[in-house]
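RETRY 2/3 - previous attempt timed out on the joint model. Re-submitting the same 861-residue input unchanged.
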Amino acid sequence: MTDTSGTPLLVVDDVAVHFGGVKAVDGISFEIAEGSITGIIGPNGSGKSTLIAALTRFVPLTRGALTFDGVDLHRLRASDIARHGIARTFQTVRLLPDLTVEENVRLGADVSKDRRGAPERVASALEATGLTEVRRSYPGELSYGTQRRVEIARAVAMAPRLLLLDEPTAGMNQGERTEITGLMKQLSADGLTQLLVEHDVQMMLDACDHLVAMAAGRLITNGNPADVVRHPGVREAYLGRKWGADARA
Amino acid sequence: MNAFYDGHVVIIQATFVGILLALSIQVPLRLGVFSFAGAGFYGIGAYVGGNVVIRADLQAVPAIACGAVAAAAVGLVLGLVLQRLNGLYLAMATVAFDLMIGVVAVNGGEWTGGPTGLYGILTDLTLPIILVVVGVFLVAAELSERGRAHRRIEAVREDPELAASMGIRVGAYRVVGFVVSGLAGGAAGAMNVMTRTTIGPADVGFGLVILALTMIIVGGALSWKGAVAGAILFTWLPQVLTFVGEWQELVYGCVVLLAGIFLPRGLYGLWVDTRRRLAARRRPPALSEQAHQDVPQEMTS
Amino acid sequence: MGGGHAAAHGTTRGHTVQEVFGAVSLGSLYLIFALGMSVVWGSVGILNFAHGAIFMFSAFLCSQLLQAFAAPFLLVALVGIIFGAVMSVLVQVLVFQQIVARSTSERSADIRILIGGIGAGIIPLAIAQHVTKNQPFGLQESSFRTTIWEVFGLRMSNVQVATIVVAVVVATASGLWLARSRGGLALRAIGVDPEVASMMGVDRSRLAIGTMAFAGGLAGLAGVLLTFQLGALTPHSGDALLVKAFACVILGGVGSTLGVVVGCFTLAAAETVVLTQTSGQWVEAVAFGLIFAILVIRPVGLFGRQEVRRV
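RETRY 2/3 succeeded.
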């Protein structure tokens, strides 16, 4: 899939986020097509997570514009982002310890104006993530991988139009990663647009329709995943040093 | 029973007033807002309540309403002004607010009676009125501990950033916390001034913060049940043990200290944790792991 | 208590020089009390709510133990410093360390430390109240006598002079130590980034005990000096002073030595102005109002680092 296929759901236009003198993100532009899975790759500190934070209004933009389905995100508060249909997961597990798995997921389902449909959304999100059995447990009683799936279930229960996944498989083993990839593809088949930040290049190649490569806050290239990982700039900034021979090219 | 009531009417009234005072400190804490402004609201409620009784001849219910609304209005302003503060800074700003109320009480001229305070505040306040007022707050608290409100309050307290990403207006919740704290503290102060018919600067000092904090820390900050348990415990303790009466402050200090170290969630938290641990033990073992292994086949297909 | 009493020594109103001197001596006392508190808070991140009680109880213990004989000034001061340091270390080891060891996040530790400090502060307060029946206590048995000197029409007591000298010496010494020495570097490092500091081999708990002892010793010294100056303290003398010191620390910016110096003298000057220009007891409100104003307008203080404002 390329930039032009489908309607862009999200337009990132010349976005910059500076913290004092640090240019965490410095002039990034790309588009996300409706229904696609877009991945952002780049070495640590390349600005991937800052971009996610900017999308959810946790950090202010220094420059540029984020347009989601025709709405200028910069004019919304952080709490309004969710109501416009953007859900996110975090790098670290952020579940509420005193709520059960079901209640944690219900917190996501509460976002929608359709209150009646909330129990149903919770049930289907639990089903999709394979958590139905443990819905009455508390997060502290679950394994790390399961806790991460609760996070994803909570975001899915928001019935979002765009799901931002910030390193959803960090700290997981290979089997768990495959699971998450499968889940993402299933959600994509249901029409959910996803933006994924990950380190695991193999997983990105497996999961994504579109890749965006960043280094030092700037865009190197973006497009077809196979083309992106073959791009010399990407190899130099990221794959060349770290993955070189291993990368499937 | 009646003889018991007649003999203990003052302390029974004090217990219910104590519950409201504890609630006024607890409401912001449940939202993760470390505000000790409840003691200041109590002072505002007491002086406003006293004034409307003395000057406007109001009876108990309207006077309580005046005290509560006045304190809630101040709470609204305070909540908006202090919106950007968190943690220790917010705690200290609200302590400064409490102490400021004490300074105003001393310097307020005829409105506060200066260092000697106000006297002769007589109304038709009865125990049923107190019960209804406290009951209203407890019902509201119980409702906030169920369903959607409960989940959202948990999110606002435990992880404000997460709450925002769940579409929750954290700032608005916090301001509401200040207002409710004002209502409860103001009502508690107004009822206190009427049960005792007098109020002075010594009654609104920092000692109040310590008393309310003791109740909450020991009872538990996360549920009204904790506030009620703490209020009953620390209103009756000095009565039951005369030794405690004499060394009341010392006992409170030790209790706050020990609870702060060993029991951060209070007696109520201990009860909840114990129940949860027992429930987890009753569930079939390795259930979570089993579910975990079930998933891949369906999902990778 | 506390506010502006030194200025009240001025016999003729409107005598500006006299009032300035009073403000300087008052600010010096605030500085001796607040400096250690600022260092502890700015480095190991602990706001010790029992600091005021330690100040009061050191003076109280001196007054109790030294009743029997005519102790000289230096001995009383030394005993006060020791009591203050010991109590402060006890609070650190028995309360704060326990809380930190049992806390999951820094945010929850912060507030539990505040609560633990409040609890720890009540205990000496309750004992002092019980023993004194809530009456003022003093150091009348000491061989030291307050004398008033008159220099070019400026009246100053020997205690005021001693307070100013101590404040200048302590502030200069600790400022230089923080800026120049290895230990000072470690303290500043831990204040900026605890993780990096611990990787550099900075022992946090040892530093915490050291700074708490320093802070407690200064609080004890301040207690003795103020008791000599006023003639007596009450068990509640520490409460308001604690909140005033908090005002001084945040005015300057947490962890900045220059900041706390400026904060203390600003508060003393503001209180002196209010005391001389208004009637009643509004002077007590100056610190509280100041806290509000700073936190609303510039929470990091005049010389504060941005990171200090915690979320």
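Strands of chain A lie at 8-19, 22-33, 37-41, 63-68, 71-72, 86-88, 162-166, 193-197, 210-215, 218-223. Closing ticket.
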